[in-house]
Amino acid sequence: MTATVLFVLLLGVAVLGAPLFAVLLAVAMMGFYSxxxxxxxxxxxxxxxxxxxxxxxxxxxxxAGYVVAASRTSExxxxxxxxxxGWMPGGLAIVSLVACALFTAFTGASGVTIVALGALLYxxxxxDGYGERFSLGLVTSSGSLGLLFPPSVPLILYGVIAQQLGxxxxxxxxxxxxxxxxxxLLMLVLLSGWSLWTNxxxxxxxxxxxxxxxxxxxxxxxxxxxxxxxxxxxxxGGYMAVSEAAIITAAYVVVVEVFIYREIRICQxxxxxxxxxxxxxxxxxxxxxxxxxxNYLIDAEVPMRLFNLIQRLVADKIVFLILLNILLLxxxxxxxxxxxxxxxxxxxxxxxxxxxIDPVHLGIIFLANMQIGYFTPPVGMNLFIASYRFEKPxxxxxxxxxxxxxxxxxxxxxxxxxxxxSLFFR
Amino acid sequence: MTTSAAPRGLxxxxxxxxxLEDLIIAGLLTATMGLALYQIVLRNVMGAGIVWGDILIRxxxxxxxxxxxxxxxxxxxxxxxxxxxxxxxxxxxRAAESLTTxxxxxxxxxxxxxxxxxxxxxxAFGSLxxxxxxxxxxxxxxxxxxxxxxxxxxxxxxxxxxxxxKAAS
Lengths: 426, 169
Description:
Structural class of chain A: mainly alpha
Shape of chain B: elongated
Shape of chain A: globular
Number of helices of chain A: 21
Strand order of the largest sheet of chain B: 1-2
Distance between the termini of chain B: 13 Å
Oligomer: heterodimer
Structural class of chain B: mainly alpha
Radius of gyration of chain B: 20 Å
Number of domains of chain B: 1
C-alpha cells in the first residue's frame, strides 16, 4: 500500500519534470531500503560504470560529434553530396536525406542535425522549387535519420545496456553495427522513393554535373573524407575496437578542424568539451543510477512477473511484436531516447528473448521505433528544435511530418517482422 | 540569469567557480584522450600497454561523467520527462519547479550521505583499486558530485521560491 502511494508520488514528480536520474535513484533507494540492504549499495552500482570498457566510446564519439557540429563540416557535406546527387530530378531531397543520415550518425541525434544541416537545406529546398510543407517535413524528420548507423550514441548505449544485462545470447557491439546497416538503408531508400514520387512533376534542377566543381568540393573536404572510411574500415573491418576508433576519431577531428581548417580556435575547445561532457554526464548518471534501479527490478523479479503476465495474455510472437511496436511508439513520443533505453531495455529484453527475438534484432526494432518518436507529438524533441530554428508553429510541423512518419512506420514494420534484414550479416 | 538576485561579489565568485569547473572537465578529457592514445600506440608498437592504463581510463570516464552531470545540473540540462509543464501557467510551473528541484536536491543529499559512508568504510578497509591508488579515492567522486548536484538543486529551489512571479514568467 505505502509502496503504491510512493510509486504514484514518484510518477507525479517525474511527469512534473523532475530530473529522471533523481526519480530512478529514489526508486532504487526505496527498493534497497525495503529489503534491508544498506543504501551505500547505490554507490557500488553507480561505480560499475567504471567497469564497462565499451562506455569509453561514448565520451569520445560525443566529443568528436560536437567538434564536427561546431565547424563548417555541414556546409562541405552538403556541397559534396549535392554535386554527386543534386543534378538528378528530386536529387536535392535525396541529398538532404543522405547528408542528414551521415551527420546524425556522427553527432548522435542530439538535435544538432536540424540546427546545422536543416538551416542549410531548408532554404535550398524551397529555392529549388520544393513545396514548403514538404521541405519542412523533410528536414524535421531527417533530424533523427541515421540513428541506426554507427557510431550513433544510442546504438552504442543499447549495446552497453544489453551486454551488462547478460540476457540471451551474447553479442559483440560490432554485430549491432552490422545489424543497423540494412534497416537504416531501407529507411533512406523508402524516404528517397517517396520524395521522388511526390515531387515527380517538378522541373529538372538547374544544377548540372561539373567535374571541375566536383574536384573543388572534394579538395575542400579532403581532410574529412577519410573519416567515414577509416571509421567503417576500422569498425566493420575489425581492425580497431570501437573504443579505439572513438579515441582516434576524436583526436583526428580535433587536429583537422582546429589546425588544418582552423574553423575552431583552441580557446573554444574547453567550451566544446564541456558541452559534450554535459550530454555524456546526463547519460552516464542516468545509466549509473539505472544499474541500481535494474538491480532492484531483477531482485524483485519484475521482469519475471512481467513475462508471466504477458505470456498469459500473449501467446504469439507476432502479437507480441505488434504490442511492442505500439508500446515503443508511445514511449518514443513521451520519453527521450536515452531514458527510454535505460528504463525499458532491462524490462523488455528478457521478455523479448523468451519470445525468441534476437537481442540484436530487438535493438534495431527499439531504435527504429524511437527514431519516429523524435518527431511524434506531443513532445518529440525535433519538432520543437525545428519550430525554434525555422520559426514555424509546432502544429504546422505536426502536419508537415505526417507523410514522412507514415513512410518510416512502413519501414519499422518491415524491420520488425523481417528479422533477416537486421541479421543478414550474421 | 538565476543569480540576478545575488550580490555582485557572490556572482563573480560563482563565475570563477564555473570557469574552473569547465577547465577541470577540459583538462580531464584531454588527459583521458592523451592517455588512451598513448595506450593505443604502446599496444600497437610495443605490443603491450601500461598494465593499469585501461582501468585508469575507465575510471576517468566515470569522473568525466560525474563532472558533466554537475555542469548539467547548473545548466538545467538533465534529462527529464517534460510532459505537462509546457502547458502550465507561470504560477503552476513555478510550483512544479520548486517541488521537483526540492525533490532532486533531497534525493541527491541522501545519495551524498550514503556514498560518503561507503567511501569512509572503504578507507578503513584500505583496499587498492590499481597500482598504488586506493579504492576509496576512486569512489570519492560520487559523494563529491552528489553534494555539488544537491547544493545546486537546493539553490535552484530557493531561487524559484524567492523569485518574484514576474521574473518567473
